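Researcher: Sequence recovery benchmark, item below. Answer with residues only.
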């Protein structure tokens, strides 16, 4: 995502940059405010706090918030590692890029704004290669989500006996094939570089996607390890919330259902600020198999929505203000 500026005066760049930043911040701020006030699921969460132990509430909410910072801290380390091939960064610069992307993501479908917001922290000449590098990181997260989700899905079908045993075996064989293909595609991502280079139309853009061939298998393994730790942090957040609000549920079954939920959610179209209802309905479908406490289930998903999406988007506003949209030869943040 380039912002061409060679024909603009410095003064024009300055005012245009301010206008874009203010537009993003005002839009994000207004949508966040309106959705948190009008969303019935979020109001359910607030009501669910009544009657709960204050000390327990503080403990569990603090733990979930700390895990949120750990999650995005791991993502920053992954982003920094990915950027070693393109534009070496400090940890702070990588973290700034991650939070900046989160602010842009809140009002774009399927978090597409996260890509744009993050690569804008790079020098202009590095932004498109950075986009391909970020795709490698996103693919690693998808691999983890799919592999864990398919395994959890098989356990889920076996435990709740929702389908015939023979069909479960058939799904298991198909799932195993899917897992193998997904892992092969990820660890051989450099083949995509070769495929793109074989076409005349795309060959001229090789300087942008050539980064795909620069990651060795050990490096790809390290990248997917970061994604796995993030996945475990996500899962732990949900387990803690269900342990707090519905303590009678077995943590192991909660973890299994959460992994299945992640798998299903990955294939649902979403808009960060509008998909709380979709998350809640999907979550209710699975967790009503374990509990009839629908309000508490919805509250768990509302808390995660607020902590993992709204709070980071607000924090990211600071980094949006510091963006150098038109770039220079130095670091942007």
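Model:
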């Amino acid at each position: 995502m380039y912002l061409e500026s060679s024909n603009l005066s410095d003064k024009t760049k300055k005012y245009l940059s301010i206008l874009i930043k203010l537009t993003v911040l005002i839009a994000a701020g207004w949508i966040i405010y309106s959705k948190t006030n009008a969303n019935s699921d979020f109001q359910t969460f607030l009501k669910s706090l009544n009657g709960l132990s204050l000390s327990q509430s503080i403990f569990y909410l603090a733990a979930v918030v700390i895990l949120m910072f750990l999650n995005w801290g791991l993502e920053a380390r992954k982003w920094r590692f990915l950027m070693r091939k393109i534009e070496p960064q400090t940890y702070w610069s990588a973290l700034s890029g991650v939070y900046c992307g989160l602010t842009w993501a809140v009002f774009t479908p399927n978090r597409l704004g996260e890509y744009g917001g993050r690569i804008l922290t790079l020098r202009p000449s590095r932004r498109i290669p950075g986009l391909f590098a970020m795709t490698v990181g996103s693919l690693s997260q998808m691999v983890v989500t799919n592999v864990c989700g398919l395994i959890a899905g098989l356990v889920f079908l076996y435990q709740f006996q929702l389908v015939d045993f023979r069909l479960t075996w058939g799904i298991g064989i198909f799932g195993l094939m899917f897992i193998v293909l997904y892992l092969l595609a990820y660890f051989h991502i450099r083949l995509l570089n070769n495929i793109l280079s074989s076409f005349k139309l795309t060959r001229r853009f090789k300087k942008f996607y050539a980064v795909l061939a620069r990651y060795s298998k050990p490096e790809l393994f390290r990248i997917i390890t970061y994604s796995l730790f993030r996945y475990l942090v996500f899962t732990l957040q949900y387990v803690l919330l269900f342990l707090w609000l519905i303590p009678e549920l077995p943590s192991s079954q909660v973890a299994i259902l959460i992994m299945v939920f992640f798998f299903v959610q990955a294939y649902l179209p979403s808009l960060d600020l509008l998909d709380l209802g979709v998350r809640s309905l999907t979550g209710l479908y699975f967790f009503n198999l374990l509990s009839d406490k629908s309000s508490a289930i919805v509250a768990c998903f509302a808390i995660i929505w607020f902590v993992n999406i709204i709070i980071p988007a607000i924090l990211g506003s600071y980094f949006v203000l510091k963006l150098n949209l038109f770039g220079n030869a130095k670091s942007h943040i």
